[in-house]
């Protein structure tokens, strides 16, 4: 049986994981696509 302390700790850890994942996702969304990837996409489009 888990104690209330264990339950609170589990909730705190899950909250921290959620916050960290959200931070990483927001960073990725705001970063621009590197030029080399854009060039590669252009090359792939030309091959069609």
From TrEMBL:
InterPro entries: NepR (IPR041649). Residues 15-47 form the Anti-sigma factor NepR domain. This is NepR family anti-sigma factor. It comes from Paracoccus fontiphilus.
